[in-house]
Amino acid sequence: MTPILLKPEYLLRGHDAPMEQGHGLVVDGKLIADSGPVAALEAAYPHAEIIDLPDAILMPGLVNAHQHGRGVSQIQLGYPDQRLEHWMAQRRSRGSPDLEAIGTLASAEMLKNGVTCAVHADLAYGTGNYEAELRGSIAGYGAAGLRACIAIGVCDQGNIVFPQEAEAEFLAGLPDDLANRLRERNDTPYEKDFTATSALLDRLLADFGQNDLVSFCYGPSGPQWVTDPLFAATAADARRRDIGLHIHALETTGQYAACRYLYPEGTMRHLAALGAIGPKTVIAHGVFLTPDDIEILAQGNAMVATNPGSNLRLCDATAPVPALIASGVRVGVGSDNSSVMDDEDLLSEARVASMLTGRRNWTSPPKPTARRVIEMLTTSGAAIAGFDGRIGRLENGWFADLTAFSLSHTRGVYLDEDMPIIEALVARGRGADARLTMVAGKILYRDGVLTALDAGEVARRAAAAAKAARLPERPEDVQFTERLKPYLTAFYSRLTADTRVPDILS
């Protein structure tokens, strides 16, 4: 295989590395083979394929630390921005799309925005064959060539409302037809128990364990959705296998109130007692993490994947990123396939995360620096995805997962010479500025073209999948959802009224 010599205007090897001019990078096969002054590399690799990247910064590929493989957004599917509990109810009016088709589109959009790796937090669609759903999503990443960590869903309670013990009272307050419809759909859409979930992981590892583009972890839906015995068993197996736990937690006011009721000692303290907080634990969202929660996470060397755009669109706030960083908790950034701009522009999403700094006073932790933002997007994201030490930096012997962003928009009509390029990139750069995206040494996107995919065919398949999932033959489902919403609103309003939910943006 012919080596590739990349010649950018700027080379950024990692978030803590100096910005280098006149330096290049050599890729040989899947790995980074060499780097240094361009003239020396040209002499050492006279037969290398040369890719000139003037007016561009070459840096580690971005890592989307939390998303669900949805290439067609909730807006496109007909779900307006609303509280998560309403959105989940509205999903009842849709069937399952072709998950490979929408997953391939999601991967393609990420590649176009400089993303080389993504954590797939799997959400079941209730088809009755969870394994087939999961394999469809994995196939989507494989078709695009995107590196992915697959979080296998774990859930065994709270399918109607949470906390689980309130279910009977909630159903009793509904008209009979609504209550009966919910009872019919009250079976978990995931594997039935821990034994079945562990066996599913065994089968996936047998099929994909030698694929260096894929890693696996467990993805508990959240403490209010997983019983203590299942959580403890899953955490113990994760430690045995040396894999991660990617946990949805404290995403909404309703979840915060439910968890305050269920775990008065503190949600993270409760999970720690179950053995679920450790160096490979990731808390996805974490909007309502308390100071005690943050301390527990820091003590356990756990991590957080923040999803600022999604949380704002779901009528809540965002994770306390400055406080987490100040406590030593590693933070990554996810799009949740529901970013502020309804796209996969992770660079812009990280900017939102850095701006929403919580309490604004002189004693609060400061806004993350530009280099800290780059760390969130690269090395911290790599750790969250289970690829720590293999991606996230441009080091010899590491996987050649990298991206090049044009600096044309970043500079605009004028950029003062005293403004560091990295500061300008974080403040003004966009995913659309990506000129080249490479995963494991393969160029998958270059100057507006997806090199391994037929973009038109990918779009057509995803559109057809989304349309087919509409279930036009069952319009009563839409009416069912609209009738259910007021009851959900009343239920969670009472729940949150009984629990003081902190105003974390005050």
Report on this model:
There is one protein chain. The chain has 506 residues and is α/β, with parallel strands linked by helices. The chain is 39% helix and 20% strand. It is built from 20 helices and 17 strands. The chain has helices spanning 38-44, 84-90, 99-112, 130-144, 167-172, 176-184, 194-208, 228-241, 253-262, 267-273, 291-299, 308-313, 321-326, 346-355, 370-377, 379-384, 408-411, 421-428, 455-468, 476-497; strands spanning 4-12, 19-21, 23-28, 31-37, 49-60, 62-67, 115-121, 147-154, 214-220, 245-249, 281-285, 303-306, 330-333, 402-406, 434-439, 442-446, 449-450. The strands form three sheets. Strands 1, 2, 3, 4, 5, 14, 15, 16 and 17 form a nine-stranded mixed sheet that branches. A hairpin with a 6-residue loop joins strand 1 and strand 2 (19-21). Helix 2 packs antiparallel against helix 20 (476-497) and helix 3 (99-112) packs parallel to helix 4 (130-144). The radius of gyration is 23 Å and the shape is globular. The protein starts with a strand and ends in a 9-residue tail after the last helix. The model has no long low-confidence stretch (mean pLDDT 92).
The portion of residues forming beta strands comes to 15-25%
How would a textbook summarize the main sheet? 9 strands, mixed
General form: globular
Oligomeric state, counting identical vs distinct chains: single chain
Strands, count: 17
What is the number of helical segments per DSSP (H or I, 4+ residues)? 20
Measured between the Cα atoms of the first and last residue, the distance is 57 Å
Q: How would you classify the helix and strand content by structural class?
A: alpha/beta
Query: Over the alpha carbons, how many angstroms does the gyration radius reach?
Result: 23 Å
Task: Assign a percent range to the helix content.
Answer: 25-40%
Low-confidence segments, given as residue ranges, are: none
Average per-residue pLDDT, rounded, comes to: 92
